[in-house]
Design goal:
Helices cover about 25% and strands about 20% of the residues. Belongs to the 2-oxoacid dehydrogenase family.
Length: about 525
Amino acid sequence: MHYCLKTVGDFGANRRVETAGIVECEIIQWFVEPGARVEQFSPLCEVQSDKASSEISSKYDGVVKRLYYEPGEMARVGKPFVDIDTQDVESPAAAASSMLAAEPVPEAPPVQQAELSLPVSESGSSASAPNVPPQPAVKPEIASTSSVVAEAPTAPADGGRQTSVTEGIVDSSTPRNRKRAVLTVPAVRHLSKIHDVDISLISGTGRDGRVLKEDILRYVAEEKEKASSATAFASSSTSSAAFYTPTPASSHVPQQQVETTQALSPTQQYMFRTMTRSLTIPHFLYADEVDFSELALLRARLNKVLAAQAAPPGQQVSQSASAGAGVEGSGQWAVDKLSYLPFIIKAVSLALYRYPILNARVDLTPSSSTSREAAIKANGNGKPSLVYRSLHNIGVAMDTPSGLVVPVIKDVGSRNVLSIASELARLQKAAFRGKLTPADLGGGTITVSNIGNIGGTYVSPVIVEKEVAILGIGRMRTVPAFGEEVDGEETKIVKKQVCNFSWSADHRAIDGATMARAAEVVRKIVEEPDVMVLHLR
């Protein structure tokens, strides 16, 4: 039975996430191999699409007959990617043969293909073979680069005939030479990826050879010990040679330039396509400096409130909690510390009510479901138009181990600062674990990029496709500034915390004056954050 790749998402016993617009995905790893028995909902493979990674589970009970793709190859949606024989019923002897076929084969010189015929009784056990003289036992040699594949014997339907079982050697150059199947749980596979360890090289100590968390950690510790020993030996040898060997007058040896080609990862491919389309948009940049002094005081007061709510009675709360967007707390709130980013996101949303054009998108072509006559009537001879959107779905650019991703906080206009911080914390954790869903990544109307948490004062951000504006946040810094003059007294020099906001806008739809006015609204809200109280929902 052909098993076609129709959807890519989370296949589970209780839910299934459909994805739209995905035409291909990369096979990351197979959890099965030809000859392995699978059951309904058992995992078949892990795939990576442009937007997310997920596991695909089997819909049938049966035996895997063919895998159409190797790890690293791109599988097309709607095309077969695995054959599962749902009619094959294995006997106990066949099941044993299938298990033996999955075991790794030791290395040795190659041998010729051998055939072995075994008579099988109705019960599946080997029957005696009269009139056949016994053959002398020959110790087989095992191929160094080959794997042994056995076809399992099946019980005959008429109950007495012999069934031939062929055991042969398959050349390693064939596409079916894969790594052995590894029994483990997804959490342990994730741990092996974190430590950049090939899990197939680890011998499991769990039941039926399962690889456990302890096996991964022990393997990593052993590899580190080997590496440190080798480094110490090399360092000792180098220092000794440097001590006893005189340095020539000119020891520089010209080196050849070496270029290595590496394919883009799925995340990089998605960014490549998206940014290529984005650069067709005519950008213009608007930057301004924003005073964060009042917001810093408000944030400090609110963090004290959150700490008091999260702390058990009589117990002091540590002030060294994460300074990120928020961490799951054990108290009343979902986060126990606020960063500046939720306040900025809320300020952008409040500005969008004054200037909804920043939340729009440019429509260059009429909808496929709209006739040409209707498009001409609506847009005036089929000209480009602006599509205004009611919800403020603000994307947040995040740097993850897999690359740049932009998850979206939905309906920011109806959220308060604490709700924004909680959703931001959830998206950050999912992004770093590679567990963002297509729903988390789609539907954005405007984007905020906080590059300042890494470094840099100014930035020229690139507008995301189907949006008309993006805000880049620089690094916060403390600068000297003139204080306000009070009752004619001499102005004093004070410390202020400032940050640069860099806006990019689509000049086809937004002029410089509109962008400047909208940016001024955001600046005033950030500099006087008490204004947010007037807009609580």
